Every structure is written in structure tokens, then in C-alpha cells.
Amino acid sequence: MTTPEAQIPVSLYGFLTPRPGHADVLRKLLLDLVEPSREHEGSLQYHLHEQEDGRFFLYEVWRSREDLDRHNATPLLRDFMAELPQHVDGAPEAYFGVMRSPYPTTSD
């Protein structure tokens, strides 16, 4: 049973620093996630930014925690996470939060 709290939009965002010489590979891996992730059920926003200092900033908004969990369990994400450590310098700096500002609704 889905609770009202489970339907509150959540965000996941953070920075990834490529290892020296790995920026191009990491950029491609991250870009390859964008369109498929946007097609996953519950994806409201999915953006990749590249900072002036070479870090990548990923920003995602999901309709609910359940949708984010389903996305994270896909083979696409599991394969990405398995390959990620060899291309990043240190651990990803990641943040998760429940959106407290209203998210615009769309009429279908």
C-alpha cells in the first residue's frame, strides 16, 4: 500500500570528480544515463552539468522514493555503479532530499 508520504517528490543530486584522464569516459557514461533515466516511470527531472573545475553535477527529481528505488534497481544503473569507481577520484558527493516546495503538476 502506498502512503501519502511515499508520493512526495524526492531529489538526488551531487558531484562526481573524474580521475585524471577519465573525464571523457565519465562524461560519456553519465550522458548515456540521461535519456533512458528520463524515460523511467516517475522521472520528473534528470540533468547533467559540467562545472568549470571539471566536476560533473547530476540533478534528479523523482515523483516518489519508490520511483527512485525502482530506477536505482535497473540493470542500467547497476552496470553504471559497477563501472563508476574506476573513473572517479574519491567517493561521489551525493545528497538525497524530500522536496518541500510544491512541485508543479501536469494535467494529462
From TrEMBL:
Pfam families to which the protein is assigned, alphabetical: ABM
Annotated protein name in UniProt: Quinol monooxygenase YgiN
PROSITE patterns the UniProt entry points to: ABM (PS51725)
Molecular-function GO terms, alphabetical: monooxygenase activity
ABM domain boundaries: 10-99
UniProt source species: Streptoalloteichus hindustanus
SUPFAM superfamilies: Dimeric alpha+beta barrel (SSF54909)
Keywords, sorted A to Z: Monooxygenase, Oxidoreductase
